[in-house]
């Protein structure tokens, strides 16, 4: 009896587990099922140079990323090999239209241009890396033999900068690209009077007594405010954030529009905008200068319309020539806005070369000025034989920009004739 009962239960068990669906073919999975342990994380290149073991990359061992620029040779390059390329066939031209002739280098390894980039990384922060990359992008685009060395002084103290200058002098470098503040530039100008130094971050008016070897590529904000002032009426107001730049811009506004009736400091985007704008009819039909950073300027423009205030115009300099302005504000917020801009169109291939390094020369004026600087440096090194890519002249040691007014349209900045 027990035997038949066990046999019956066994048959019922197998019968209940059988499905009526047609057997499906085996489909391999991309997951590794050979072990029940969690798979090791993929190796990361965020800490390049160098490599780490799987144990080092485990979640229990946090990774510390050191982004400090080392004072060491960053690049020593020769032009692309095979500069005497034979003419490609018709088939190859059609299959690869972008594969153009590589021009022979203007210099050879006996006349290699040696460039030092002096960066106080803790002071200029993101521009320490982007300025170096701008120089590399240009030199690679021009296909020159070059020796590029980066010298990170860390800060702009006299002893730090002077130590870097001594190393540059000992290395026999022909030119120095140095994105500095006014404080650092004054120290460098005092202690280096022979090697040509291009400073993309400052205008000549900042250091009017600098030596003849100091070249400046900074934006002329005086010129920009003068151009913007042509759009004002008889009632002018200013917004600023307490920075030295906004203080300088306010001074230019008063220089060209003596009838300033309103000045307001907004130090950050967390200010009480409701208290500033609600019911403040004085903003109606007023020309307002936004000498504030991008986010604050966008909030001001939005709050004016949100509180049914109708200014005559909103005016801003290069600091707000940024595509993010088009997304941080609605079109109606900026339909009466004018922005001064000194960046001109660069060769598309050079823009792409810079973009490969993660930065742009279309909207970022420091990177744009750095490209102008290295453009002039190469022109000078080759004694005028190198073709310049930028039309901005260098007069009295200052890059002269062609400034125009733009209106932020729905999807782009539109130049005003």
Tell me what the structure shows.
The chain is α/β, with parallel strands linked by helices and 417 residues long. The chain folds into 2 domains: 72-78 and 105-219 and 346-399, Rossmann fold (3-Layer(aba) Sandwich); 222-341, Rossmann fold, CATH 3.40.50. It is built from 13 helices and 15 strands. The chain has helices spanning 2-17, 90-95, 121-124, 126-142, 158-171, 182-191, 221-228, 244-256, 273-277, 294-306, 324-328, 348-355, 365-381; strands at 72-77, 113-119, 146-152, 175-177, 197-199, 214-216, 236-240, 260-265, 287-291, 313-316, 337-341, 394-395, 398-399, 404-408, 413-415. A 7-stranded mixed beta sheet has the order 8-7-9-10-11-14-15, with helices on both faces. Strands 1-3-2-4-5-6 form a 6-stranded mixed beta sheet, sandwiched between helices. β14 (404-408) and β15 form a beta hairpin. The protein starts with a helix and ends with a strand.
Short synopsis of the structure:
With 417 residues, this protein is an alpha/beta fold.
C-alpha Rg (nearest Å): 30 Å
The percent of residues in helical segments reads 25-40%
**Low-pLDDT stretches:** 1-5, 7-65, 80-101
Tally of DSSP β-strands? 15
> Which class do the helix and strand fractions yield?
alpha/beta
Report strand %: 15-25%
Q: What best-fitting shape do the alpha-carbon axes yield?
A: elongated
Reported for the largest beta sheet, the result is: 7 strands, mixed
Region (Disordered): 25-64, 77-102
Signal peptide: 1-23
Protein name: Periplasmic protein
Biased composition (Polar residues): 25-52, 77-98
């Amino acid at each position: 009896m027990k035997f038949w009962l066990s046999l019956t239960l066994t048959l019922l068990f197998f019968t209940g587990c059988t499905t009526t669906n047609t057997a499906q073919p085996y489909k391999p999975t991309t997951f590794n099922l050979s072990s029940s342990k969690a798979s090791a994380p993929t190796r990361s290149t965020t800490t390049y140079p160098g490599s780490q073991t799987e144990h080092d990359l485990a979640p229990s061992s946090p990774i510390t990323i050191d982004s400090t620029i080392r004072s060491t040779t960053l690049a020593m390059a020769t032009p692309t090999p095979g500069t005497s390329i034979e003419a490609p066939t018709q088939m190859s031209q059609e299959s690869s239209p972008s594969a153009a002739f590589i021009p022979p280098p203007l210099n050879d390894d006996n006349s290699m241009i040696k460039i030092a980039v002096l960066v106080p990384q803790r002071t200029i922060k993101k521009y320490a890396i982007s300025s170096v990359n701008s120089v590399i992008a240009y030199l690679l685009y021009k296909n020159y033999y070059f020796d590029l060395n980066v010298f990170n002084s860390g800060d702009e103290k006299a002893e730090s900068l002077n130590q870097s200058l001594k190393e540059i002098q000992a290395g026999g470098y022909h030119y120095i690209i140095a994105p500095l503040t006014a404080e650092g530039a004054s120290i460098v100008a005092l202690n280096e009077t022979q090697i040509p130094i291009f400073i993309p971050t400052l205008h000549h008016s900042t250091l009017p007594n600098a030596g003849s070897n100091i070249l400046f590529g900074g934006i002329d904000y005086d010129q920009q405010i003068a151009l913007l002032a042509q759009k004002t009426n008889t009632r002018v107001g200013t917004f600023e954030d307490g920075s030295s730049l906004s203080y300088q811009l306010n001074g230019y506004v008063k220089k060209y529009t003596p009838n300033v009736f309103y000045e307001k400091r907004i130090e950050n985007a967390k200010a009480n905008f409701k208290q500033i704008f609600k019911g403040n009819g004085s903003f109606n039909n007023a020309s307002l200068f936004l000498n504030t950073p991008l986010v604050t300027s966008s909030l001001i423009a939005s709050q004016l319309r949100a509180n049914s205030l109708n200014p005559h115009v909103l005016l801003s300099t290069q600091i707000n020539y940024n595509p993010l302005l088009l997304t941080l504000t609605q079109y109606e917020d900026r339909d009466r806005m004018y922005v001064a801009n000194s960046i001109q169109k660069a060769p598309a291939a050079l823009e792409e070369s810079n973009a490969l390094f993660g930065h742009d020369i279309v909207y970022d004026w420091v990177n744009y000025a750095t490209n102008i600087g290295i453009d002039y440096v190469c022109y000078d090194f080759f004694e005028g034989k190198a073709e310049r890519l930028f039309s901005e002249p260098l007069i009295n040691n200052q890059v002269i920009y062609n400034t125009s007014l733009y209106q932020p349209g729905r999807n782009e900045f539109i130049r005003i004739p």
